[in-house]
Amino acid sequence: xxxxxxxxxxxxxxxxxxxxxxxxxxxxxxxxxxxxxxxxxxxxxxxxxxxxxxxxxxxxxxxxxxxxxxxxxxxxxxxxxxxxxxxxxxxxxxxxxxxxxxxxxxxxxxxxxxxxxxxxxx
Length: 122
Known about the structure:
This protein has helices at about 15-20, 40-60, 65-85, 95-120; strands at about 25, 35, 90. By secondary structure, the chain is mainly alpha-helical. The chain has one domain (about 15-120). The protein has a 3-stranded antiparallel β-sheet with strand order 1-2-3. A hairpin with a 6-residue loop joins strand 1 (about 25) and strand 2 (about 35).
């Protein structure tokens, strides 16, 4: 995959598959971070969750595992399409640090809510 910083083929397909703004893909040649656009990641996530939930409901309704297999195949195909055709966007180190801080705050709030709900349950 072409790095948006140096325009060389220094980003592996696996790095692009795993890349996000908090954990970006790093170019092997220039070491700069890059990620797929957040809007595309969000849209793909919503579509994949919608398909998985629909197939889980269908699996329980028909008492058959084929819909779940279908959702897995669709997930793999969508990810392969993203790896093949969606370009990486350049990120700065400041964007990565900011994204990680936001992620850590989200996780901390989530854990506190789970603890609060667990303490007040019962």
